Amino acid sequence: MYKCIGGCHCGQVKFEVDVPGIIRVHRCNCSICKKSGYMHLIVPANYFHLLSGKESLTEYRFHTGVARHLFCNRCGIKSFYVPRSHPEGISVNLNCLELPDEVEVLVEVFDGRNWRENRADLV
Is the dihedral of CA 81, 85, 87, 92 positive or negative? Predict the structure, then answer.
């Protein structure tokens, strides 16, 4: 496992996440991910540690209100959130993570517009 640092653009929100040597991320086509370019790396909650910026997070919920989209209230970047598909975990935005060169990234396309039918693909 590798400990990697991530965060928002302005640096107010910082976190650490444990990742294995090979990670699988999802490029999603749902309405919010498509517009923001979010690349999902879903990890168990205990692999994620918020280091700073809790007070800088603004929450946005839509549709069912289950997913907790968390944005930095200064720069607007969503570097992580609690997904509806895995409420026991955290989805980290790969684009907000500093990965060591040794970590191999496999990118898969995910049909998030029809996520209920495709949820098993996220495991």
Answer: negative
| pLDDT tens digits, one per residue of 17-63 | 999 999 999 898 878 888 888 899 999 999 999 999 999 999 988 87
Choose among 52, 51, 54, 58: nearest CA to 73. 58
Specify the pTM: 0.86
In whole angstroms, give the CA distance from residue 39 to residue 25. Answer: 6
CATH number of this structure's domain 2-113 = 2.170.150.70
Which residues, 6+ apart, have CB-to-CB distance to 81 below 8 Å?
A: 67, 68, 69, 70, 90, 91
Q: Give CA–CA dist 92/77, Å, rounded.
A: 12
